[in-house]
From TrEMBL:
Any one Gene Ontology BP term: fatty acid beta-oxidation
Record bears the keyword Oxidoreductase: no
Keyword Lyase: yes
Transmembrane parts of this sequence: none
Catalytic activity: a (3S)-3-hydroxyacyl-CoA = a (2E)-enoyl-CoA + H2O; a 4-saturated-(3S)-3-hydroxyacyl-CoA = a (3E)-enoyl-CoA + H2O
Protein name: enoyl-CoA hydratase
Originating species: Knoellia remsis
GO MF entry, a single one: enoyl-CoA hydratase activity
Enzyme Commission designation: 4.2.1.17
First-tier enzyme category under EC: lyase
One Pfam entry name: ECH_1
Similarity section: Belongs to the enoyl-CoA hydratase/isomerase family.
Amino acid sequence: MPEQLVTVERHGTTVVLTLDRPSALNALSRALVAELAERLEEAAADEAVRAVVLTGSAKAFCAGADISEIPNMTGASPLDTLPFDRLFDTVATLRVPTIAAVRGLAFGGGCELVLACDTAVAGRSARFAVPEVRLGVIPGAGGTQRLVHAVGKAKAMRMLATGAPVDAEWAYAAGLVADLVDDDQVLHRALELAGQIAGNAPRAVAYAVDSARRANDLPLHQGLAHERRNFLLALGTSDAQEGVAAFTDRRTPAFTGR
Ligand SMILES: CCCCCCCCCCCCC/C=C/C(=O)SCCNC(=O)CCNC(=O)[C@H](O)C(C)(C)COP(=O)(O)OP(=O)(O)OC[C@H]1O[C@@H](n2cnc3c(N)ncnc32)[C@H](O)[C@@H]1OP(=O)(O)O
């Protein structure tokens, strides 16, 4: 029986996936990458699931790609990165919002995993880095693109070009994470946020806003067209009618997900 590298917990309509490879600070081995992608796809396929929280076991979120697997990368081809591409594409396009709950370090691919999520909560012990330059490589899972979107060019280059870690306060002030709480409150805050998402909007609308938000990664004009399409789709749902009616009637909407 292969070692379980990702634990799955259900908290109401939220699934919590924990990277569970503490001996290697949850480094992303190929086995862990494949297992995490499968658990994410399973969660998103469940109509009752409204959000996924990603977190790490022990004192780390994730120390990045498993460096012990680098020697096998001589003459690496795009095929070698497929498992990583599948995982990061799955996180970035999941049908439900993804929330990173970070305690301890999120380095390299671990930091890129946080960036691929829709939002993030950090504990005061959290540290973020893209130290790949210190390995003679560069981030290969979106870090050079998503970090600029998250914190802006100047702060992104400070991290990318030096590989130096930043602390939780810096990450929060820079916009890399949305909330900064005490370490023992990280999961609680992530679950609270997931519950607010589930409680305040029908699944289809939450997906539409998430999908439209991701269009922000496209050039602006494409993003605006994508947003308008999703807006009009949402407007045509019975939930939108119910939401408007409930506001008019000063009552809580009874969404049906249609
Ligand atoms: C670069 C290519 C990756 C190869 C395979 C991928 C295929 C292609 C994919 C493309 C997309 C991926 C892009 C992402 C790339 C990366 O993430 S590169 C790696 C970036 N991360 C790092 O450089 C961090 C390396 N680790 C450290 O610097 C330190 O461990 C630490 C994080 C600062 C913590 O230090 P400390 O508290 O002193 O703990 P340690 O004793 O160093 O570590 C504890 C044990 O954990 C093991 N470990 C830590 N990090 C990794 C890791 N990234 N990979 C594998 N193992 C790791 C460490 O070896 C210790 O284990 P033991 O020695 O057995 O005790």
